[in-house]
Design brief:
The complex is a heterodimer.
Chain A (H helix, E strand, L loop, with lengths): L2 H7 L2 E2 L5 H6 L11 H4 L1 H14 L3 E3 L12 H21 L7 E6 L14 H18 L3 E7 L2 H14 L4 E5 L13 H10 L4 E5 L8 H10 L4 E4 L5 E4 L2 E4 L3 H14 L3 E2 L7 H11 L13 E4 L4 E4 L4 E7 L5 H8 L3 H14 L3 E4 L8 H15 L4 E4 L3 H10 L5 E6 L2 H14 L2 E5 L10 H17 L7 E4 L11 H14 L4 E5 L10 H14 L4 E4 L4 H13 L7 H8 L32 H7 L3 H11 L5 H21 L5 H25 L8 E6 L7 H12 L3 E4 L6 H11 L3 E5 L6 H14 L4 E5 L5 H6 L4 E2 L3 H16 L1
Parallel strand pairs in A: 1-10, 2-3, 3-4, 4-5, 5-6, 6-7, 7-10, 13-14, 13-20, 14-15, 15-16, 16-17, 17-18, 18-19, 19-20, 21-22, 21-23, 23-24, 24-25
Antiparallel strand pairs in A: 8-9, 11-12
Chain B lengths: L2 H10 L7 E5 L6 H7 L7 H4 L3 H14 L5 E9 L1 E2 L5 E2 L7 H7 L2 E10 L3 H12 L1 H32 L2 E3 L15 H7 L2 H5 L2 E2 L5 E2 L3 E10 L1
Antiparallel strand pairs in B: 1-2, 2-5, 3-4, 5-9, 6-9, 7-8
The chains are: A alpha/beta, B alpha+beta.
Chain lengths: 813, 222
């Protein structure tokens, strides 16, 4: 019988702990248990038979650590084959009469994936794929991925299972006492991702006893529309005479698990510390309980690697600022591969209060799939807001969805068959919450009824791909009322009908409505309020617009979505005080300082003072007004650079410390941003000194120091190409050659990674002999730098700047 | 069982104990150390304290980490055998002169790993881009937090050891002096650190979460 059919009407019982039983049978510390499949098969069969005898329907093959990191391919295949045969033999020998299945057990590779670790996501997928293929070949009934404590690692394993088999896949995560995975994911986030990728059953195992997992299980049951599983430890371990003992015994264990079966758990077993007696007790307890049917929960979720965002309750704000359309400065950032600009936009929007970020990096002249992939990875390294991938290029969409850690929002499909047939398969495979525009081959219909008809068509088509309507969100399209004054009415009616008649979420790009009108904010924010009243679930919007945020907070307070109006109050209290007039232009006396001033005579102008004191916003606004009367390059030469020199010299004299230097650097950056904006509008380039390639060397993942050096170098006008951390030797060389960069900075924190630095320098000398190399990082000293053949040891950011200036001047001169 | 009982029981064991795990409350913040780890030397700190911008950032850093960190230690106690070559025989291979000196005359060693979890790494990532000075302060705070956790654990080991007539030396970490960082590859599995503490090792033996520490405390009995 197929396991999924069996599960429809029955509880499914799993096995219990394996490790402790193997140790009792003589497994030595450090010995790999998987090898016992061949060296001691009789012990494995005995233990597994005892689980089948106790009533387990599913026994996991003894392959928890069977992966390509521990075994070569030949041994791996042999071990997995033997493991599956052992479990089959145990089933044959068992006296139990229940349905019996063998699962391929897959545990974590034990590698933390990038960006927090050093292992590539795709390498993990490839490793898990090997195990899956060998398991499928050996003839298992299902795949059981377990004890995963990281969301991205879990995705890699599930993707491998899905890409290499058609078998049912169960996924079980290990939660800590705080109810989260080690890397921060909450249960709702895992439910969203795993259900989106069509796992057949999901839940938790290990770490804790059944009572400590009640909260986690309740959250699973609240959100999951697939069967939920539980495989807890026998309570908490402690040491007794050098042996591990657990504090929950079979009767209490069965009692606790039974309570969760009554609440809706459908699959149960045990993990560390449990034995066949525990399983027997659970099976017996369950005989008195009727399984709770698994029902569709209809919860519309997207997730990141830590949190889930739900649609359909309080309205969701999606920040629209990561989009080059009509933004010259953003386009320039894309062309220059300036990912930091995009990350800055993300973090600013997060601070402004959005719950999701739309990510659109499409420009005709850039490689959109590569850039979107990079943007997804880099964004997920700095923000835990879920992302909405916004592209019309299906290849870019797949690259982004595949690498995304969580369940992303997909922007977008529409009623055209050619679009649905390309995007829906991606969503079915990787999961996703899909924006569907009510437009089709016939264009955008004028009436609400026709838009609703398209929505109905899309819902049917999505169902063909196994995508339920809870994973769709319709955008009935806001058109400008300056062209047709009935346009907004049609949109609002469509929102109302789709939400209330079809029971599906809606979203709008709000601001189109006011296109072509003066003071657009007035129309846009009022339209936003009216749409919310009609049931709009989400808006793609500009979170820097105070009018829009006013509407959002007021709506939530008025609709009983804001307990005690706390959110509104805290929002309102932080509103800027109303100003009578805009700050007067030219507030800074211009030109008061000679441009050659390199002495630390103290800041002379308002702008210089603002930079020296690290006042970012003030620096930005002063620069903006100053740009009305001074040339951009003059501002840089006469204001920003002298101010930076003052702080830099004070730092060198130890009059100021690193945080102050960074504050000044950030403030200077605000000035540069204003200048760049103006120059992007004029189509010009910013002032640049020579190229500077910077990297943390291969094997080293510490990049805080390197990032500081980069920031300061950029301030001094160097064209910094930052290769990031853990950078392979040849990558550094290739970039130096590409830019013909005269100077390279290498950073290493650990003694163990200094050899990689030495190797990089060696390759540079061979292939890019013109480049000077400076090195820095905690372990380095002048002697060390000399020994590995560097040109200069730079103790801190300012020393690096001084050295770079030397080289730059030599080039000019 | 309370921590003291667990530690004392483990320290009386004549054989290698199983790994055990202790959860701690938030230790109080040592501001001097925090600022020192944030690249503000001790002699500058009085001056720095007068800077309202810095004070505001420090306050923000504290509020950001509140509720985000978890304080966890895993440890085993092992008997120290002394080899014919004079080096201590430990569960990992090494010939470190400095560790030998540190453990001199010792009969038992506590091998431990301490971590404050991965939340701090996410905060550092976010703020080193959005607000570098805050990123630096979070970085320093993370270092101070995990060191404070080690100090707390270390002090408890010391107290328990003294009760049993033993004496501890200062803790010694893999990667320090001539003890190669590669011993981490054996050290962490001894503590089942990946599964129980969430600590993984990169190819070059760096730990993630980054605010994690492994160390050895030797105990002498006179």
């Amino acid at each position: 019988m197929n396991i999924l059919d069996y599960m429809k009407d029955h509880f499914l019982f799993l096995d219990g702990g394996m490790g402790t039983l193997l140790q009792e049978a003589g497994l030595q510390p450090g010995e790999l248990p998987e090898r016992w499949n061949i060296s001691r098969p009789e012990e494995i069969i005995r233990i597994q038979k005892s689980y089948y005898d106790a009533g387990s329907n599913v026994v996991l093959s003894n392959t928890f650590g069977a992966n390509g990191l521990k075994f070569d391919d030949e041994e791996l295949e042999t071990l997995i084959k033997a493991a599956v045969e052992n479990a089959r033999e145990a089933a044959r020998q068992s006296i139990g009469t229940q349905e019996k299945f063998v699962a391929l057990d897959i545990g974590s590779l034990g590698k933390l994936l990038k960006p927090y670790g050093d292992y590539e996501f795709e390498d993990a997928v490839a490793m898990y794929s090997k195990t899956v293929r060998f398991g499928v070949k050996a003839g298992v009934d299902l795949i059981f991925i377990e004890t995963m404590n990281d969301s991205y690692d879990t995705k890699a394993a599930l993707l491998a299972a899905k890409e290499n088999s058609d078998l049912p896949v169960f996924v079980s995560n290990a939660y800590g006492a705080d109810g989260k995975l080690m890397t921060g994911a909450c249960p709702a986030a895992m439910v969203a991702m795993l259900e989106g990728m069509h796992a057949d059953a999901i839940g938790a195992n290990c770490s804790l006893g059944p009572d400590q997992l009640v909260g986690v299980m309740e959250e699973y049951l609240e959100y999951a529309s697939v069967p939920v599983l539980l495989k807890p430890n026998a309570g908490l371990p402690r040491s007794e005479n050098g042996k591990t003992v657990y504090d929950v015994f079979p009767p209490e264990f069965a009692e606790s698990v039974g309570k969760l079966l009554e609440k809706g758990i459908r699959i149960a077993g045990g993990c560390c510390g449990t034995t066949p007696d525990y399983i027997r007790a659970v099976v017996e307890k369950a005989s008195t309980i009727t399984p709770v049917p698994v029902t569709e929960k209809n919860r519309s979720l997207v997730s990141s690697y830590t949190q889930a965002v739900e649609f359909g309750g309080s309205p969701i704000l999606i920040g629209e600022r990561i989009n080059p359309t009509g933004k010259k400065r953003f386009q320039q950032a894309l062309r220059e591969n300036d990912i930091d600009y995009i990350l800055g936009e993300a973090l600013k929007q997060q601070d402004a209060g959005v719950q999701l970020l739309d990510v659109n990096v499409g420009l005709p002249e850039i490689d959109e799939p590569a850039f979107l992939l990079r943007a997804v990875k880099e964004l997920q390294a700095v923000t835990d807001l879920p992302l909405q991938l916004d592209t019309t290029d299906p290849i870019a969409m797949e690259a982004g969805l595949r690498a995304y850690n969580g369940k992303a929002m997909v922007n977008s499909v529409n009623g055209k068959e050619e679009v649905m047939s390309v995007i829906f398969p991606l969503v079915a495979k990787y999961g996703g919450f899909v924006v569907a525009l009510t437009i089709d081959e016939g264009g955008i219909p004028d009436t609400a009824e026709e838009r609703v008809a398209i929505a109905e068509k899309i819902i049917k088509r999505a169902a063909d791909y196994g995508i339920s309507k809870k994973d769709l969100i319709f955008d009935p399209l806001a058109m400008t009322i300056s062209a047709d004054t009935t346009a907004a009415l049609a949109t609002m009616q469509a929102v109302h009908k789709i939400r209330h008649d079809l029971g599906v979420n809606t979203s709008l790009g709000i601001s189109n409505v006011s296109f072509g009108l003066p003071s657009r904010n007035i129309i846009t924010s009022t339209f936003f309020a009216l749409c919310l009243q009609d049931g709009l679930s989400a808006a793609i919007m500009n979170p820097y617009s105070q009018e829009m945020m006013n509407v959002y907070y007021a709506f939530r307070a008025l609709h009983n979505m804001d307990e005690n109006c706390m959110d509104y109050i805290s929002y309102a209290q932080n509103l800027p005080a109303p100003t009578m007039t805009a700050p007067a232009a030219g507030a800074a006396p211009a030109g008061a300082l000679a441009s050659d001033s390199g002495s630390s005579s103290g800041p002379a102008t308002e702008l210089q003072k603002a930079i020296v004191r690290g006042l970012k916003e003030k620096t930005g606004s002063l620069t903006k007004s100053l740009l009305a009367e001074k040339k951009p390059l003059e501002i840089i030469q006469e204001e920003v650079i002298p101010a930076l020199n003052i702080v830099g010299e004070d730092f060198e004299k130890k009059k100021v410390y690193l945080p102050q230097l960074l504050m000044a650097a950030e403030a200077a950056k605000a000035a540069f941003e204003e200048v760049k904006k103006l120059m992007a509008d004029d189509g010009g380039e910013g002032p640049k000194r020579c190229a500077f390639v910077i990297a943390t060397v291969h094997g080293d993942i510490h990049d805080i120091g390197k990032n500081i050096v980069k920031l300061i170098l950029e301030n001094y006008g160097f064209a910094v190409s930052d290769l990031g951390k853990d950078v392979p030797e040849q990558t550094v060389v290739d970039e130096v050659i590409r830019l013909h960069a005269p100077i390279v900075g290498l950073s290493a924190l650990m003694t163990t990674t200094v050899p990689a630095m030495e190797e990089t320098i060696k390759l540079l000398r061979e292939q890019a002999p013109w480049a000077k190399v400076c090195v820095g990082g905690a372990v380095l000293t002048q002697e060390y730098a000399d020994a590995i053949g560097a040109d200069r040891y730079c103790r801190d950011a300012m020393e690096t700047v001084r050295y770079a200036e030397e080289i730059d001047q030599a080039l000019q001169g | 069982m309370d921590r003291t009982t667990i530690l004392e029981e483990a320290l009386t064991s004549e054989t290698k104990t199983i790994p055990q795990y202790l959860d701690y409350e938030t230790p109080s913040v040592n501001v001097t150390e925090w600022l020192r780890y944030s690249c503000i030397p001790v002699y500058e700190q009085e001056n720095a304290a007068k800077d309202p911008e810095l004070a505001a950032s420090m306050e923000k850093a504290l509020s950001l980490v509140s509720g985000v960190l978890s304080f966890r230690v895993g440890f085993v106690v092992v008997p120290i055998e002394w080899g014919k070559d004079g080096f201590p025989v430990l569960p990992f291979e090494q010939k470190s002169e400095k560790l030998k000196k540190n453990l001199e005359g010792g009969r038992k060693a506590v091998l431990f790993a301490a971590t404050i979890g991965s939340g701090i790494d996410r905060l550092i990532r976010r703020y080193e881009k959005a607000d570098p000075k805050l990123g630096l302060l979070l970085q320093g705070l993370g270092a101070e937090r995990v060191e404070s956790l080690c100090d707390t654990f270390d002090a408890e080991v010391k107290t328990s050891a003294e009760k049993l007539g033993g004496k501890t030396n200062w803790r010694y970490s893999p990667g320090y002096g001539d003890l190669p960082i590669e011993v981490q590859r054996v050290f962490l599995p001894l503590l089942d650190a990946e599964r129980r503490l969430g600590i993984t090792l990169s190819e070059s033996c760096l730990m993630a979460p980054s605010k994690s520490v492994t160390a050895i405390i030797g105990i002498k009995f006179d």
